[in-house]
Amino acid sequence: MTNSLPSPPGEDTADLLEAPAARRRHLRLYAGVAVAAAAAGGGWAWWRNQPSAGDAGASQAFWDLSFDTPAGQPLAAKAFRGKPLLLNFWATWCPPCIAELPLLNEFYRENVAKGWQVMGIAVDQPSAVRGFLERTPLDFPIVMAGLGGTDLSRSLGNLGGGLPFTVLFGADGRILHRKIGQVTPENLRQWSRLI
Fold first, then answer.
1. Average model confidence (pLDDT) for the chain?
2. Cβ contacts of residue 75 below 8 Å, gap of 6+?
3. Averaged over 107-118, what is the pLDDT?
4. What is the dihedral of CA 81, 174, 137, 67, to 10 degrees?
5. d(Cα 63, Cα 13) in Å, to the nearest integer?
């Protein structure tokens, strides 16, 4: 008498032996698809954040603008031309914006002597910005854009209109890079090497 278990109905021994090999093939296929999707998503994000031929008109339009500071004084964008500029769109109601401001302030203090400039464009109410700056002073200039700041950020490549949004301009006024989302120390290190 043999001690073998009966196969489930419709399965023979060969099917049971093939099952682990088929599972491994399926797992390799799923892993390949996942890697391809991640590579495509990363490539799209990289492409979207790179300058394009259409950026020349958008960047020139930016340099022609003038803004008001929270104190109501005019500040022309062209005053920043000729040196690298890190332009940051933010708002007081945006937690990632507020979280990155100390990092941007530190970057400004460490690099202003090297010719770097930082300008914050507040997409917010002037009273909210003034109150914030009283509690948290920043060393770099802040200007007001109000709700029109969303349109300006879109013209500079922020297609979704989200905040924070940062644009890196070279000394020649061209867009070198842009980032949607919170800036990291590594972003700042990489960008400082572009100039």
1. 83
2. 66, 67, 68, 69, 141, 143
3. 96
4. 70
5. 75
Do 160 and 180 form a contact (C-beta atoms < 8 A)?
A: yes
Long-range contacts at 129-134 (CB < 8 A, ≥ 24 apart): 129/70, 129/92, 130/70, 130/71, 131/92, 132/92, 132/98, 133/70
Q: Name the residue with tokens 């998503």.
A: 41
Instruction: Identify which has the larger pLDDT, 38 or 59.
Output: 59
Between CA 146 and CA 129 the distance in angstroms is: 10
Structure tokens at 184: 């990291």
By three-state DSSP, how is residue 173 classified?
Answer: coil
d(CA 34, CA 41): 10
Mapped onto helix, strand or coil, the DSSP state of residue 75 is: strand
Give, in order, the Cα–Cα distances in Å from 132 to each of 18, 49, 113, 126. Answer: 66, 30, 26, 10
- What Rg do the C-alpha atoms of the chain give, in angstroms? 26
E strands, the chain, are: 66-68, 74-76, 85-90, 117-122, 142-144, 165-169, 175-180
Element (H, E) at 18: helix 13-48
